[in-house]
Hints:
Shape: elongated
Strand content: over 45%
Largest sheet: 10 strands, antiparallel, barrel
Radius of gyration: 22 Å
Distance between the termini: 57 Å
Number of helices: 2
Number of strands: 14
Strand order of the largest sheet: 1-3-4-7-8-10-11-12-13-14
Order of helices and strands: HEEHEEEEEEEEEEEE
Amino acid sequence: xxxxxxxxxxxxxxxxxxxxxxxxxxxxxxxxxxxxxxxxxxxxxxxxxxxxxxxxxxxxxxxxxxxxxxxxxxxxxxxxxxxxxxxxxxxxxxxxxxxxxxxxxxxxxxxxxxxxxxxxxxxxxxxxxxxxxxxxxxxxxxxxxxxxxxxxxxxxxxxxxxxxxxxxxxxxxxxxxxxxxxxxxxxxxxxxxxxxxxxxxxxxxxxxxxxxxxxxxxxxxxxxxxxxxxxxxxxxxxxxxxxxxxxxxxxxxxxxxxxxxxxxxxxxxxxxxxxxxxxxxxxxxxxxxxxxxxxxxxxxxxxx
Length: 304
């Protein structure tokens, strides 16, 4: 039986190729104007003179059409190692969803800016399982009707330094700090731990796991202003960290284009890819592998 690449795999390759292509396109601009001008050396008060790439404050919000691939395992001191659950295949979670996403930055100077963002994903499912699932201290047996929730919030804060800053091209390096705040709940009607059970009506009766995982991310990016109202950008980034009982890794890539109908108002479209892996061994071990990618359509405001 022929196996085709998943949407996440296709989009992952497309994002990397897209960023490489973008960097190739803007290379002539970098070669022509890589030396900073006198305007570049001025303070944030002169950012407006630098053109459309350098608003003092920028904010964007819109819809993110996401494609998912998620694995989760929660161990127990009582039952031992839990089942590695594929949320989409084993629990019937949808592989795609629309969610809201927002972010922006505040520019401290032509070359310095503080970035921020927030992204929330909320998913749930109901399915009859065809294999035994160990999740924390509970064991859900074959034939149980399982209701499941997987909710994630990702606030982020970061800093970017533009090592190239001219009217046509901005290239930057940055570091971002964020947290993956995840709530996972499983409850069932059928057999749990060898006893009949009904769908729980109160949260304290359900098998629920909440975990907050810190995430850091180094990234490089570039923005190009080929014509007065159009901007094209891209970025790649990633990092692995181990802090006490927590191990986390992240890889990101994206490409986007923005067109401004007015000087302060425009719209944009892009593609983002994110892969998260995290393990928390404090208490019951929680192991999460989370990959999502998708298309982003958004409105953008720029204030100079």
